[in-house]
Specification:
single chain; 4 helices
Amino acid sequence: MTFVSTSSSLYARAARSVRAHPFLGVAIVLGSSMHAAGHALIAAAGGHLARVLASDGPLGNARSIPLPEALRNVDPLLVLGFVGVLAATAKLLGGVMAAWAEARVAGEVGAALRLELVDRLLAANSVRGTRQNGHGRRTAALTAQCAHV
C-alpha cells in the first residue's frame, strides 16, 4: 500500500495513489458523475414544478418535451416527485462514493508524507536504530529522542 515518492507535489502523489488503485479513480469519477446528474435532474424537476405552480396549465405544453406514453396516464406531479426523489438519491450516493474514494486517496498520500517527513527528520539527526521494522521503527526511534528534547 505504500509507494515511493519522487515528486513533492501533493497532486503527483495523489495521481500515483490513484494509478496504484484504479478502483479509487473509477469511484471518484462515477461518484462525481452521479452527483452532477442528481444536480441536473433536481434542477429539471424544479423548473418543471415552478412552471406548473406559476401557471394553471398542464405540466407539458407545446414547447416542452412530451412525456413518454407510459407516463401520460399518471399524475404528472407524482412523476416530478419521483424524479426528484431519484435525483436526490443519486446525488447522495454519488457524493458518498466520491467522498469515500477521495478520503482513501488523501489518507494514503498523508500517510506516505508523514513517513517521509519522519524519515527526513531521523536522517538529519543521529538516531540509534531499533530492532523494529517499518512504521514502528520510525516511531520508536522518534520517541526515543523525545527525552533529549
